Amino acid sequence: MTGILTALCAAAVLAQPPAWFAEAEVCSGWYRQWTDEAIADMRGLPFVIGVPPDALVIAKAHEQGTRVLAYVTFYQMPAVGEYQRANLAEHRDWNVIGADGSETDSVFASTENPGWKAVCPNSPAFRDFALEHVRYLVSQGVDGLFIDNAHPSALCEGPKYGRHEHLYAGEDNIRAYRCLLEEIQAELSADGKRRALIVNPGEPRPEWAGACDSQMLESYICTWASKTRWHDEGRILAFQKSWGDSPVLALSYIGHTANPPREDAFWCYAWARMSGFLWADWFTAKDTARELYTLRLGRPVSEMSLKDGVYSRRFEKGVVAAAGESEGGTLKVAAAEGKRAVDVFSGRGLEPDAGGVVTLAIEKGRARVVVFTDE
User: What is the DSSP string of 291-349?
Assistant: First the structure.
C-alpha cells in the first residue's frame, strides 16, 4: 500500500484551477452563523470561505451566485470531543508522537485551542479519515476547501513507540502532508468537477507550491495583532518579488490601526492587486470600503512600476496605485479611449488633459484605484 501511495504522490499532476477561481480578484471568509441575512451580505463576492457542511445553506449561497469553500484543518484536533465528524480520543493512532513518546500539543494549545493535539498526516488511519471527510464535504455541494494551519509537525515517532505506522517510512511529515494535499486535490475533482483548494501556512511555503490552487498570506500589511501597518514597503515588495503573480491569497484585517479603516482597506487592496495577489479582508472593511468587494479590474496589462513617487499597475479596466509611506506622489495615466475615469475612493470623475492623461495626487501612505467606465 505504501508503495502505491508513494507512486501516486510522485506522479500527481494538478489541473489548472477552476476558471471562476482564476478570475476572482477578491474573496472573503465568514466563520459565524450562515443566516439568510449573512448570506445575502455576501452577494457580489466571487466566493466566501467558512460555509458549514449543510447542503441547504450551500444551495442558498449558490442561488445568489456566491460560491463557497468549507473550512477544515488537518493539523490539529481537540483531545476529546467531536470535531470534523470524528473524536480524536477514539483514534489514538492519529496523534503526532514526540521524541519522548508523548502526544504532541498543537502550537495553539496555549492560546485559542487549549487542550488540542497535533495529528499525523503520515498515519494511514488519519489519512483515510481526512479523505473521507473531504468526500463528505463534496457530497454537500461545496465548491472547494480552505485548509487552515498548513504547518505540520515535521517529526513524529509513532512507529518507534508502536502508536502507528507511517505511509512514507523514513520520511518526515512535510512529505506526507504534501502528498495528502495532492490526494485531497484529486478527491475534489474525482467526479470531473474542478473544485478549488486553498491552504493557509501563515505565509506561502515552497513545499506546498503546486499541491494546491492557492496559499494564504495571512495578516497582510494590517492585522488584528498590531496597531500599525507593516512599517514600510520593503516587506511588501519582498513578498511581491518572491510570490508576485503566483496564486497567493493576501488576507488583511482592517480596523486595528490608527489610520482611517477606509485608507487601510484601499492600501492593502492596492498592494495585493499590484503584486498579483487575490485579496480578502474577512468582512472587516464591509462598512467602510465595501465597493472593493465588487471591483473587477480584469487581467493586468503591465508590470508594477514606480514613477513620480507612486507605485502603480494597469489592468484591463483600471489602474491601482499607492504612494510610499515616506512621501506622496502623482499618478499620471493615459485615459482609456471613450471611457470615463473615476477615482473609486472619492467617487469623483477625473478629467483628462489635452493629451488624454489623467492626473491624481496621492498622499504618502495612501492608495487609490482609478477605473475606466462607460457610466
Answer: HHHH----SB-S--EEETTEEEEEETTEEEEEE-SS--EEEEEEPPTT-EEEETTTTEE
> What's this model's pTM, rounded to 2 decimal places?
0.94
Give bridge partners of residue 300 from the DSSP assignment.
315
For residues 118 and 112, give the distance between their C-alpha atoms in angstroms, rounded to a whole number.
14
Q: Helices 173-188 and 2-11: crossing angle, nearest 10°?
A: 70
Q: Which residue has the cell 465588487?
A: 294
CA–CA gap between residue 210 and residue 212 (Å, rounded): 6
Burial pattern 239-271, b for ≥16 Cβ within 10 A else e, equals bbeebeeebbbbbbbbbbbebebebbbbbbbbb
pLDDT digits (tens, 9 = 90+) for 20-44: 999 999 999 999 999 999 999 999 9
Query: Residue 15's pLDDT is what?
Result: 62
* Residues in a beta bridge with 310: 307, 323
- Tell me the C-alpha distance between 280 and 298, whole Å: 17
d(CA 189, CA 18): 10
- Phi-psi domain of 282 (left: phi exceeds 0; alpha: psi -120 through 50; beta: other): left
Four-CA torsion 158, 163, 166, 170, nearest 10 degrees = 40
What does the CA dihedral 196, 122, 250, 135 come to, rounded to 10 degrees? 20
pLDDT above 90 for 336: no
pLDDT in tens, 40-97: 999 999 999 999 999 999 999 999 999 999 999 999 999 999 999 999 999 999 999 9
Measured CA to CA, the distance from residue 221 to residue 230 in angstroms comes to 5
Alpha helices in the chain (DSSP H): 2-11, 19-22, 36-41, 55-63, 124-139, 173-188, 233-243, 261-274, 291-294
Radius of gyration of the chain measured on its C-alpha atoms: 23
Domains of the chain: 2-218 (3.20.20.70)
Strand-pairing partners, residue 68, are: 48
Q: Which is it for the CA torsion 200, 206, 212, 214, positive or negative?
A: positive
Show Cβ contacts of residue 155 under 8 Å, excluding neighbours closer than 6 positions: 96, 98, 99, 172, 173
**What rounded mean pLDDT belongs to the chain?**
94
For the beta carbon of residue 130, count every other beta carbon within 10 angstroms.
23
